[in-house]
Amino acid sequence: MDKILDRFLGYVQINTQSDDTTELNPSTPQQMFFAQDLVEELKNIGLQEVTLNEYGYVMATLPANNGKEKPVVGFIAHMDTSPDMSGKNVNPRIVSNYDGGNIVLNAALGINLNPEEFPELLRYKGEDIIVTDGTTLLGADDKAGIAAIVTAMEYLLANPQIKHGKIRIAFTPDEEIGQGADHFDVAAFGADFAYTIDGGELGELEYETFNAAAATVTFHGRNVHPGAAYKKMRNSMRIASTFIYMIPRHETPEHSQDYEGFYHLTDMQGEVEKTTLHYIIRDFDRSHFESRKKEMQHYVNRINAEYGEGTAEIEIRDQYYNMREKIEPVMHIVDLAKDAMHECGIGAKVQPVRGGTDGARLSFMGLPTPNIFAGGHNFHGKYEFLPVNSIVKAMDVIVKISELATKD
Rounded to two decimals, what is the model's pTM? Predict the structure, then answer.
């Protein structure tokens, strides 16, 4: 426990926020610095074939010690933290033996983590919990995953009586901005299947994701002095607002859960001459997903029919697809994770990912990759927290999967 805790607390103090505006690979230099540190750490604990490529991807091997080279199991986590909130000067604190009450994150700013707003806290009464100081995110997404993987590999090296096949590990940049698989070399990784250690609470096991697309809708207007605008001005912002209200109001993130899809307006910029809306489109069902994209085009057509051709235009770009399509033919890898959790005394909570994961794209690139918990809660913000026992259990599951993977 001390090793994984020290490792995690050290990792989160390295600022590795990604940035989707730089057009660099990795998107921020701090990620490459962290990757270089990880390379040295992996070599020091005794892993082999440790590599770092120009895009910031770290890979390494733990050789088999049971005489069985197949299957090769992979474990993957991402190095970047979300650009949604600062990851600079992270100041983690351990709340020992949590008493079930309010946790003051920052008294001066009046920031508290309390079970009235976050009832899941009560599940960890009596446990140690790592929290923020209320001014940054924590970075458990996904430095908890990295710490769990590295510590699991170190444990297996120190305990050769635990027999396992060949294991490959990888740490990727820019997952938080949807680019984590852009330069992932599946052939070089050489695993038969893998797991991202990037989930939330204890026991999470996920092999379904949204089908995902991004849509940019642009509205063109005409600016004329308002004093002389009669029958001349076309205000693109007003036209855009008409489009916004065409979107079904109950098919948005705040009105959807479980397997329900949505349209989500993520950003808007506008003036009289031009307004741009950015949406994401999500649905677990592929046919419904395709229908949502057609519906967006239909709304644009309606705008053009009312205001004139060329008033609105839309660009839709698919981002990733539901990895269930690629996992179902190899469901034994999900069963393997379930068995490992059971042997570690954890009840597997199989549920869909209402978000993105590198595993979705990797699965379509030929590497089936379900997702396993790393233990954190409330990612991407100041209320993020990590129960210490949960990250230890994530490490235990990695060890147990490694042990069970080549057993007959």
Answer: 0.90
